[in-house]
Amino acid sequence: MRRLPLLALACVLLASCNPAVQTAQDFTASHQPNCTYHGQMGTVLVILMAQAVPTASQVPCIELLPAGLTVSDVFVRNGRARFALDSDRDLGHHVVEVVLERSCRLGSVTQVPSDTLGVRRYQEVVEVVPGRRYQGMLYHLFEGGCVTYRLDFRGGEQARPLSEVSLALGFVSREALRKTVHDYTEGRLELDPPAAGG
Amino acid sequence: MEPTLRNAPGTVGDPARTRSARVSRSGRHRRPSGEAPPLPRTLDVSGRWWLAAAGVVLLLWTAIISNRSTALFVLSADQTVVEQAARMRTGMLTDVMQTVHALGSRWTIRLLLWSAVAVLLVFRRFRHLYVFLGATLAVTAITSLFAYIVLYPRPLAVEILGEWSGYAHPSRPVAVFTAVVVGILYSLVPKGRLRQLGKLVAAVLVAALSVSLVYLAVNSPTDVLIGVVIGVTLPLVAFRLLTPNEVFPVSYRRVSSAHLDVGGRRGQAIHRALEEQLGIQVHEIKPFGLSGSAGSTPLRVRVKGEPEAWLFAKLYAGSHLRSDRWYKLGRTLLYGRLEDEKPFNTVRRLVQQEDYALRLMYGAGVRSPEPFGIVEITPEREYIVVTEFFDGAREIGEPEVEVDEAVIDDGLRIIRRLWDAGLAHRDVKPANLLVRDGRVHLIDVFFAEVRPSPWRQAVDLANMMLVLACRSSSQRVYERARLQFGEDEIAEAFAATRGLTMPSQLRRVMREQGRDLHAEFLRLLPERPRPIAIQRWSIRRVGLMVGVLLLGLVVVLLLFSNFKAAGLL
Question: B75 and A47 in contact by Cβ < 8 A?
């Protein structure tokens, strides 16, 4: 009988360590910075990234992760959010590092067309070693923030994986995240303070 | 005069039988099954409360993860408090709170942690150090794990004014800061008023940090509360279970780590155990001859009655068992397998060895203390070996002791008796040779070995000659030794003895006297013997060295990576 509380505690501990217990449809169940999860815009991680840069009108996220790429090195703190994509092929460890900040320092860049409304896109080639490596930067400037893709492709494909990466990554608007928080909390909570949210 | 066999009539210097008569074998108490040991590792009431709080936290987490309504309820309740706090914001208060918030910064925590580690290293309080580091790492690991599982954002709808990183729940700065402060209290602050005062200070600091985090909207109340529960419970339980104050007291007196405190609950437990298990009436227990002992806590027990009588006791605990293991491992690494280097597995076996050695020596007619048995203090943790006390005996190194030819002969006869009985003492040094009424007594037989190698026996002879020569002259000791030992035996003794084979106390005495007695004896020998190498190389030794090095490297790397990952480096 004396062991019953211990047994109960162990069950609780085991249950709480199992993320599968979380509601499957719940966006709070995802550990990835997904743009959509079971019909809702963003995940808790994306909301946390939005909190890191409260001025940012857009937050980077993963649209669709192609086979062979995995998310790693997620780090979010006030003023900065970062995650990377690793390749299990020859492309390398951190194929792309995505950084969200309040502002970016642009080098010798060239403006390129952007797929996202309200986002200006700039490209910079840092280093090209023919047949071995491509290093470059993609800057995404929008109201209240900037997202940098630090590209580092190893192997002979040069900049070809860029299209794959561009398809994998995307943006979710702050407005959409506000709606997600509002809906999830049944109107009890908002993402931003009233003054900032407008 | 020859040391006498036990069945021979008692002579001057033999153990006084009246002492043993005081130790009654009747009326001994058999510890009833299920009775709590005298020195239990208790959590105390506060420890149980904190554990219960941790249980509540686990339940809450389960509810938050598995039930959306609960999660929403907690979020909303937290939000109400955070919003209330935000309404109280003023410029000055915000400045104050941001300053207080620095308590939870990585640099503050690093400074506190590594300063405490440095103090623990200086005072060689390794057990506390391991528990401190382990508990701190465990707290960082658990907060990270549950932050990953619970996935709570920072407080919503309020401007966050402080620095933060990662998910909000549980509050990592609060948990780690609390853990470090609790660790400092239990590893550096002696138990008593000072620690109580320290707890108050710690509570104020943790509360201030928690309030600042909520005020700045870095964390919600639930985050900080659960951070506090984790930060207190883990180190508290770890310290209370693994370094109970009765066994590992925090003290700044310069005492050997081998010497345990025999006051307080342990003193009472020893007192009671001696009375119940040996049937004696204890008047007083005091540490005795601590300077000559490094492997146990020697005690002198005053027995009630007329005339005044004394017993000698040696307290052994887990710390002595570990010291013995490390000592033997060190010897094996440095010199190979010189002799039996097998460590003991339990404290019980360790004391059994001492009791057995005492009985062997006593039975062989070596003038050593009469054993009165083993007394159990806490099963498998602490035992006492009780023997006769040589009342009025003086250590041979003391200036008052006259080391004349009779004493020299007596000391050498002890070695001859050991040789004849197939025994080796293995720790012949001034502290282990007592002189009473012109007779030499050999004590501390813990290292005694049955059927030792001739090399080991030769070392005993050389050490005895060196000890005797410290108080007389090498010429005189050599001449007296020649009456009981052959030249070849003495030559072998000095060929075998050097460096580590001489006890450190003996080396120190010779160094203080500025005499190279070993060289003096070598000059006296008709032929200088070839030194016997004490380095023993084997595949086992090389393997052990490589293994220890690799293990050390792995431990360092693991610690480094864990502390780095935890942001503590």
Answer: no
Confidence of residue B40 (pLDDT cuts 50, 70, 90): low
ipTM for the complex shown: 0.83
Are B163 and A5 a contacting pair at CB < 8 A?
Answer: no
**Does residue A113 belong to the interface with chain B, where contact is any CB pair within 8 Å?**
no
Q: What SS3 string covers B137-170?
A: HHHHHHHHHHHHHHCCCCCCCCCCCCCCECCCCC
CA–CA distance, B365 with B2 (Å, rounded to integer): 10
- When pLDDT is averaged across residues B171-187 and rounded to a whole number, the result is 96
Question: Cβ contacts (< 8 Å) between A48 and chain B: which residues?
Answer: 153-154, 166-167
Residue A195's pLDDT is what? 62
User: What does the pLDDT average to over B486-512?
Assistant: 89
The reported pTM is 0.75
CA distance A48 to B148: 13
At B53-67, the pLDDT tens digits run 999 999 998 888 888
pLDDT of residue B19: 44
Closest CB to A48 among B62, B71, B154: B154
Mutate to test the interface with B, among A48, A102, A179 (most CBs of B within 10 A): A48
Interface test with A, best of B64, B65, B150 (most A CBs within 10 A): B65
Q: Which helix (H) or strand (E) holds B183?
A: helix B172-188
- Residue B499: the pLDDT is 76
Q: How far apart are CA B389 and CA A84, in angstroms?
A: 74
Residues of B in contact with A28 (CB under 8 A): 71, 151
Interface contact A22-B66, CB threshold 8 A = yes
Q: How many H-runs (helices) and E-runs (strands) does chain A carry?
A: 5, 11
CB B477 within 8 Å of CB B403: no
A110 has a chain B CB within 8 A of its CB? no
- pLDDT tens digits for B147-176? 988 888 999 989 999 999 999 989 999 999
Helix axes B68-87, B44-66, angle to 10 degrees: 110
